[in-house]
Amino acid sequence: MRREFIAPIIASCVSLLAGCSSVQQEANGPQVWATLVDASRGSTAGDPTLGRLVNQPIQVGKNWQLVPDMFVVRACDDGPLNCKMGVAKPTVRVTVHQVAASQASVSLTVSYDVGPSQTLTNGLSTHPLSTVTMSIPKGATPFSSHVDVARTVELPYGQLRKVDLPNGISVGLCLSTTPASVMPPSGACPDGTLDRFAAAMAAAQSF
């Protein structure tokens, strides 16, 4: 029986995730606040779900792209002693199409790559160019895979919706129209989302 295990590793970029993301913006124009949630489930029952939140305003017609985290994942055919390893890198893009009083039309696309090594590049003008590279241990048997996911929905404000990816990794999205910045602990998501992270992600509807 094939089993998959996850060891999350934070892709440490300047100012939390700011160095790993890009967003299109113009002066003036309607916008929403978006909170992206990323999560990884543990390798055995009872392990905690690990993840975090990041926030960004997005104007209508524009998009926000980021790599929230990278994770070392293992795929095991005959128990934990016969495993292949890879580094998972989900690249997420959020595009806002229209905003209304209670919801927004939004697209969430994820390009999910697993390989023996992955690199993030911080190329924002406000920070020096830098890279973060993660690789599987020397001597480990590698595996590679790729999955593309694309969803477009009418997302009610304040609701958490998620996309489940291979290897126990998932990403979620919440939106808000508040004119002020929305920040953790829960951002645009329902209050207490970060405090009850595993339960919130488990209960979230899929895109």
Description of the molecule:
By secondary structure, the protein is mostly beta strands. The chain has one domain (3-206). It is 3% helix and 53% strand. The chain has 1 helix and 14 strands, in the order E-E-E-E-E-E-E-E-E-E-E-E-E-H-E. It has one helix at 197-203, and strands at residues 3-9, 21-23, 31-40, 50-59, 63-66, 70-76, 83-99, 103-115, 117-122, 130-135, 145-156, 161-164, 169-176, 205-206. The chain is globular. The two termini are 29 Å apart. Residues 1-19 have low confidence and may be disordered.
First CA to last CA: what distance?
A: 29 Å
H/E element string? EEEEEEEEEEEEEHE
Helix content range of the residues, please?
under 10%
Low-pLDDT sequence parts: 1-19
The average pLDDT is: 82
Q: How would you characterize the largest beta sheet? A: 7 strands, antiparallel
Note the overall shape.
globular
Give the helix/strand class: mainly beta
Beta-strand residue fraction: over 45%
